[in-house]
Amino acid sequence: MTAGKRLAVLGAGAVGGAVVDLAAAYGHTVVAFADSASAVVDAGGIDADAAVDRKAAEGHVGDDDPEDVLHADYDVLVEATPTTLGDAEPGFSHLRTALERDRHVVLANKGPVAERYADVRELEHDSEGEVRFEAAVGGAIPIVSTVEDLGPSRVTAARGVLNGTANFILSRMAAEGIDYEHVLAEAQDLGVAEADPTFDVEGTDAALKCVILANVLAAGDREFTLSDADVEGITNVPGSALELAAEDGRTVRLVGEATREGIRVGPRLVPGNAALAVTGTRNIVQLETDYAGQLNLSGRGAGGEPTASAVLGDVGRLG
Amino acid sequence: MTAGKRLAVLGAGAVGGAVVDLAAAYGHTVVAFADSASAVVDAGGIDADAAVDRKAAEGHVGDDDPEDVLHADYDVLVEATPTTLGDAEPGFSHLRTALERDRHVVLANKGPVAERYADVRELEHDSEGEVRFEAAVGGAIPIVSTVEDLGPSRVTAARGVLNGTANFILSRMAAEGIDYEHVLAEAQDLGVAEADPTFDVEGTDAALKCVILANVLAAGDREFTLSDADVEGITNVPGSALELAAEDGRTVRLVGEATREGIRVGPRLVPGNAALAVTGTRNIVQLETDYAGQLNLSGRGAGGEPTASAVLGDVGRLG
What's the pLDDT band for B203 if we cut at 50, 70, 90? Predict the structure, then answer.
């Protein structure tokens, strides 16, 4: 059983809020919690319910300064602020501050490991702290730890459906024969797609996850960023393509593939009963391995609790 | 990267032979290797190819005594002798000898953790050595380590198709409309079913794996053995049942379920496109969890290399 750790949580959205909510159930104590403009810090453990309630009611978690979180006394920094591209700031600096203080970092934020993987590994190398990022790829599905346990050099490819919004849209288009615009509207009503769905429907989110996986597979031999990915989203998939596919017992899914050579994301024809033909918002990853054959891992790729379970799973795997 | 360990391998069948074959690729050294009647021991590392070749050509691996393996200087004992029920001997004694010498034990042999789980954990508690057994459940599929990482108390059930022989037979019956006896003969010709297929077709093998999973979920609160399992195999599934199911878009699979309350194995109707409707010899496990939703893990549940990869994955996870 893991000894309880002191967590500092940056980010009060669905994931950060769920981590704060569940930490006690996993035996950990949240000593600091920040959203973009406020924070609550308590060395004895914050009142998690009160902070989450206050965020919902008033829009901030506490009366302290977010900077206070970075300077608090904690064992693990949970970085759950929104993913940013390019310099991956401010998430990258949060990670650097923690590692320079020899603390561990668990990322739900994709930015640092998608866009600055080599920098992250270098900082980690010079630190007593470890960096883990299961929650950045595939929500609750234990993809990164499975690749780690297999040994990245023994995994030749990671391929899958890694964006629930795009998958929901395509599977609804296939099931109902409704066109893209209408299904997108339905998805937005259901909260499955954002008001600005670009990140999901243009394949960027799936690509970031594949870039992270490619960085894991390459294990330091080379570094990939989003700009290395060959990406096509679902915005140009006509309803007729799904109908035509169905006549052949097939369907269309937004499939991403990561190898040591690079990353491709795009709509692909798959057999209707294929493992990749997951429905709704579920995600799946297929790992091609040298000795273990093909492993399929599927589950909830997004959502506060599933992603928080990946964060807390990583906390448990820290040395 | 894991520091290389010295392995002593008991069992020269498909799994033991594959572990000996692959050990070097994983950075480990095999210092001792035994079949039921012979052994080869070399502190500097045995000639793996020569031993495996000799076994194939002459029926024995070396000129030493199998007892020599238990007394050799090694870090990890790989117990890959045939699964036995009841007292789980001689596998259990092999495990005990290793733990009493403060060595680690990695099991491919199901017996000790299916039939004497509490005894195994007690010996482990009193030892510096650890016991791991991924290879005992679902071949290459990382089921046990995933449950371990989630935290067994947060997994409410493990359900799946865990016997490739029975699954092959049922999926061939469904695909071809051939009756059980004929498909069994085909399976035996292909080497997918044993000359005596009882263990597989009567559900015993699947039940043992579910018993092990139930022991993991119960985490010491109670202990299960094969006798606790409610087991029905596939020998009474008529071809007509599969035809009838198909008319409704469904099929039949031998499904096992393990919870903290017990174990059930039996033929079950599942939707044709359900995750559980794996085809051929593939296995699948669905984990129902408190926070991570439902996780599906599928892959090659048997075979020398896939099972050896689970053994070597366990070696890598040892402290």
Answer: very high
Residue B87 lies in a domain: yes
Give me the pLDDT at residue B1, please. Answer: 47
Given this model, what pLDDT does residue A2 score?
Answer: 55
Say if residue A209 is in the same domain as residue A67. no
Residues B104 and B55 in one domain: yes
Answer yes or no: do B300 and A294 touch at CB < 8 A. yes
Same domain, A199 and A243: yes
Same domain, B116 and B13: yes
pLDDT, tens only, A78-112: 999 999 999 999 999 999 999 999 999 999 999 99
The predicted pLDDT at position A1 comes to: 47
Domain count, chain A: 2
B67, B118: one domain = yes
Q: Is there a contact between A298 and B275 if contact means CB atoms under 8 Å apart?
A: yes
A209 labelled catalytic: yes
Full residue range of the structural domain in which residue A263 is found? 145-299
Tell me the C-alpha distance between B239 and B179, whole Å: 5
Residues A311 and A271 in one domain: no
DSSP string, A269-302: EEETTSTT---TTEEEEEEEESSS-EEEEEEE-S
Alpha-carbon distance values, A68 to A49, A58, B242 (Å): 20, 20, 64
> Does residue B36 sit within a domain?
yes
Mean pLDDT score of chain A, rounded to an integer? 95
pTM of the model: 0.95
Going by C-alpha positions, the residue among A318, A314, A316, A3 that lies closest to residue A135 is A314
Assigned token pair, A300: 């909830």
Question: Which CATH number fits the domain that encloses residue B258?
Answer: 3.30.360.10
Within 13 Å and on the Cβ side, how many CA atoms surround B37? 4
pLDDT single digits (tens) A108-124: 999 999 999 999 999 99
Q: Which residue of B has its CA nearest to A135?
A: B292
Residues on chain B bordering chain A, Cβ-to-Cβ distance under 8 angstroms? 22, 26, 140-142, 145-146, 149-151, 154, 272-273, 275, 289, 291-300, 303, 305-306, 308-310, 312-313, 316-317
Residues A122, A239, single domain; the answer is no
Best of A278, A291, A305 to substitute, by most chain B Cβ atoms within 10 angstroms, is A291
> ipTM > 0.90?
yes
